[in-house]
Design brief:
415 residues
Length: 415
Amino acid sequence: MQYQFSTDQRKQRLSDRRDKAVRMHSNRSSQSLANRRAIGFPRALVILLAAFLAACATRPDEGESVRTLLPQEAVNRNLPEQPPLVRTRDNVHDVLALSAGGPDGAFGAGVLAGWTKSGKRPEFDVVTGVSTGALLSVFAFLGPQWDDLARELYTSQTNDTIFKKRGLRGVLGDSLYDNTPLKAQIEKYITEDVLRRVAAEHQRGRRLYVATTNLDAGELVIWDMGKIALGGRTDPLQHFQKVLRASAAVPGFFQPVYIKPQRGTQLRQAHVDGGVKEPILYADFMGQTTAPDKNLYLVVNGTTQEYNDAQPVKPNLASIAQKTIFELMREIQSDTIFRHYIRARNTGMDFRVVSIPDEIPISTKSLDFDPVRMRSLYSAGFQLGLQGPDSWARKPRGLRGANDEELTPLIALQN
């Protein structure tokens, strides 16, 4: 017998089916919303990360037309001959070259102070500087009365007064560290008064040169800092400070400094540490003079030891990469000292080189501004400066046992 539903029962069954359908639709909607949210979260993260990376990767406007353009105050080394330098004295021409070296620049500051104390420090006709040596070169150029300021600068710094860590932004951006504190240090010590004094010495015929690397062109740039000091830019002091900061902008660690090569253009070149191309600056034109006595003094803010074996390399990427880069820089330094020695011999200059003594351990951290170590380096430099250049080496380390006959073929190869 077929079962017959009452009217009320049929209504109840229809209501139950409708409620079930509503619940199923609601569940599907909730799941769809959850899925959309789950998919939307990584999408939002990717968008935010892309925007972050884009912000980190920006730089001032540049153009192909200015990448290789020689800055208006730079020396054109492609000319066959540079104009002869004006001498400040009749019989002696002295050139001082201060090397790169980061915190080890304290050594060079000590050498200068000790040299002053000896009473035999000359008034240099030409002073050059690279990286940390660029900032020190300004004080060396202006004379012994600036020794105390150099000592203050190179014995009181810490990492916090030179740079700040940038964290993830640094890893994904243009440098690991923010060197805004270094910028503040340069602005503190390089003032309008310094600029006026550099300009006055330039007009006397003396020259101050600083090297940077134009990273856009892969080219060494030699800046005539006296020309900058004389004017020709909207803000000569700021431009002078920027060149000094660029010369010490270690690639990867500090941001490049973006510089307009010519007044009037809004396009900029990326300039970094001059030590990338040449850790010690000297060129033949710097010794062009009719003076009978010519001297080239190299102050190396680093070691010239044959071996760097104080500590073994650790089995990790950071240790291996750090030691490899350090050794590459040591090799560039060694080659540069040798080239300058050959140049000096070929132009009749007396050559002297002084570097951090072997008994002082090589620092395992190239950017560790440890005031205790820096004061120790300053003291070591002071003693060597006090002894004077007659006690310094007359040849690069690898040639010190060679006589003139043995050196002749090497000199010929460099010509």
